[in-house]
Specification:
cell membrane, membrane, Cell_shape_determining_MreD, globular
């Protein structure tokens, strides 16, 4: 009773989340993947994987936003949009979701800096895996020139993705 008295004046008891709130996290991950189609030309691969950043941002914010198996279709959509080999993002994103599930069971609490460190490790491993697959397929690019800038930019862009996920989560739940 006290909580409802202290709440917002237009708040209603029993008001649930917005219509389609379950699909907002998945839609933002796909929109993050669509950033790769912007007409930005660079000689080196410095552009971050915004779809992966949004996936990590949502997963660290809310473990219950979607089940772990959603990583496969979202990764498949990312593969189709970005032009990476089909199955690369499916495998990497599924491994990321499994690793985050294990991490959730192992940690008692996390603050912002720990989540940023987790995102740094995950982004670094994902970019390294993409570089390794490219090297296996015949690309002759050194790690420092191809994956290094992308890892650095992705790590620096993670707070933006986490902020976007947090703001959209507040909007979708009607708070």
């Amino acid at each position: 009773m006290v909580r409802s008295a202290l709440g917002h004046k237009t708040a209603q008891i029993g008001r649930g989340p917005r219509l389609g709130a379950d699909y907002v996290p998945a839609a933002t991950v796909v929109l993050g993947s669509l950033i790769a189609v912007l007409p930005i030309v660079s000689a080196r691969g410095w552009w971050p994987d915004a779809g992966l950043l949004m996936l990590i941002g949502w997963r660290l914010l809310r473990a219950d936003a979607w089940p772990a198996w959603w990583a496969a279709p979202l990764g498949f959509a990312n593969d189709l949009i970005t032009g990476t080999p089909i199955g690369l993002s499916v495998a990497v994103w599924s491994a990321v979701m499994i690793a985050m599930d294990v991490l959730d069971r192992r940690t008692m609490w996390r603050d912002y800096w720990i989540e940023w460190a987790i995102a740094c490790v995950i982004v670094g491993l994902a970019e390294f895996a993409q570089w390794r697959i490219a090297a296996i397929m015949g690309a002759s690019v050194p790690l420092s020139m191809s994956a290094g800038p992308s890892i650095l930019v992705s790590v620096l862009c993670f707070p933006i993705a986490a902020y976007i996920a947090a703001r959209l989560d507040r909007w979708r739940l009607g708070r």
